[in-house]
Design brief:
single chain, 40% helix, DNA Primase, Chain A, DNA primase DNAg catalytic core, N-terminal domain, 458 residues, Dna Topoisomerase Vi A Subunit, Chain: A, domain 2, binds zinc ion
Length: 458
């Protein structure tokens, strides 16, 4: 992820970005937070002083960083092109002796192995701690027995959902009953690589297919209910498979772990068209962006994310090579969704339905985005006389207006080039609003125009 450059105002002056949270004080953060965890060494069972120090002692920063970027030996140190800003000559240095890194170029900052992975992966400290602990073979232990039990239950649910994903995926590829599902997938133009990458699956047209399989694998009925795979009948207390005769689309968190499913009916008259996992301890649709785990790297690389509405839109986009595309899971973007994206980019393109409801949803999304991404928005009149907003923090939101009657899925299949053009020419929010409001207005009516400007100004 590149450092944000200062925002240039339209009058040519610039606004410096305030330091982001955590920057430049990573070490104190580590020291303040490590006492949240007790842990034991998985090999010796001993209890060392500091989990952060233990992880750092076990991991070689050269090895960790070289798993992300190629390092060149240079005297006692290693050099590389800085992964956080673009440059032609290496100014990024890794020091094996102090186990630290520093960019002597535009970033002019450095840190330890924790700050490196936090910056590179967009992780918060907790995630970095968990991931590096895993890599170092250090087991983190939650503090209280209750926390330990909750963590164990969560781990079980994750395993259960991973097992269910493999089960459904296997059925899609091999079950005779999945013939219709396979035909549907190929009719939608999804190839074998996409089916494998998204681990698409199929649920049998039975009330007990998943339950029998997962029970035989050692998971209790209660666990399967908790994971949202089984429904319990209120009256009799018996259970049945929630997902039957549907195309199963695993929904993953940002780290690629399955947390739920979207399930599409294969019956043209089937209702609902999409049946999602209910809210579970792992799945909260207001927090999830579908495809984010597969899009993260591309979003960081391209410094832009395109947000669409449907699973099919995301899969089609990725298949066509547009990997910076994710889907919101509900009718509007939420703050937790935007917070995840914010770690990778502040340039958002919203590609939503062109109909009236779609426009309303877009506007709701924009309102949330404005609150989340920018502390302060300043209206600016640009030379063309349009009202524009620029966020002090450099957020940029654009709206991709799809041609009437198209969703991204159709459009990308028909013309990937047209899609790329629409992304490039997406309108800044306020230009979009202006266009929507001017639709149906007489542009020669100066009173009407003045009214529009009034509505746009805060
Ligand atoms: Zn740099």
């Amino acid at each position: 992820m590149a450092m944000p450059s200062p925002t240039r105002r339209r009058d040519g002056s610039t606004i410096a970005h305030p330091a982001r949270e955590g920057e430049g004080r990573a070490a104190p953060v580590c020291l303040n937070r490590h006492d949240e965890y007790n842990y034991r060494d998985t090999r010796t069972g001993r209890l060392p002083m500091s989990v952060v120090e233990e992880i750092k002692a076990r991991l070689d920063i050269v090895e960790v960083i070289s798993s992300y970027i190629p390092l060149q030996k240079s005297g006692r140190n290693y050099k590389a092109l800085c992964p956080f800003h673009s440059e032609k000559t290496p100014s990024f240095v890794v020091f094996p002796e102090s186990q630290r890194w520093h960019c002597f170029g535009a970033c002019s900052e450095g840190g330890d192995v924790f700050t490196f992975v936090m910056k590179k992966e967009g992780w918060d400290f907790r995630t970095a701690l968990e991931e590096l602990a895993r890599r170092a073979g250090v087991e983190l232990r939650p503090r209280t027995p209750q926390q330990a039990q909750a963590a164990e239950e969560t781990a079980r649910l994750r395993e259960l959902l991973a097992e269910a994903t493999r089960y459904y995926h296997h059925l899609l590829q091999h079950a005779p009953e999945a013939e219709g599902a396979r035909a549907y997938v190929s009719r939608r133009g999804l190839n074998a690589d996409t089916v494998a990458r998204f681990q698409l699956g199929y649920s049998l047209p039975r009330w007990d297919g998943a339950r029998d399989y997962l029970t035989a694998k050692g998971y209790t009925v209660a666990e399967q209910v908790k994971a949202g795979l089984l429904v319990r009948r209120e009256d009799k207390g018996t259970t049945y498979d929630r997902f039957r005769d549907r195309l199963m689309i695993p929904i993953r968190d940002g780290r690629g772990r399955v947390i739920g499913f979207g399930a599409r009916t294969l019956d043209p008259d089937g209702k609902p068209k999409y049946l999602n996992s209910p809210q579970t301890p792992l799945f909260d649709k207001s927090h999830v962006l579908f495809g984010f785990d597969l899009a993260r790297q591309a979003i960081g690389r391209e410094e832009r994310v395109v947000i669409v509405e449907g699973y099919m839109d995301v899969m089609q986009a990725h298949q066509a090579g547009f990997e910076n595309v994710v889907a919101q899971m509900g009718t509007a973007l939420t703050e937790p969704q935007l917070r995840q994206l914010q770690r990778y980019t502040k340039r958002l393109v919203l590609a939503l339905d062109p109909d009236a409801a779609g426009v309303q949803a877009t506007l709701r999304g924009v309102a949330v985005a404005q609150e989340t991404l920018a502390e302060e928005w300043t209206p600016v009149f640009d030379p063309r006389g349009l009202v524009g907003y620029e966020a002090r923090l450099g957020a940029e939101i654009r709206i991709l207006r799809l041609p009437q009657g198209y969703d991204p899925d159709d459009l990308i299949r028909q013309s990937p080039r047209r899609w790329a053009e629409l992304v490039e020419t997406a309108l800044p929010v306020v230009d979009f609003l202006l266009q929507v409001m001017l639709d149906g207005l007489d542009l020669n009516d100066s009173k009407a125009k003045a009214g529009v400007v009034d509505r746009l100004l805060p």
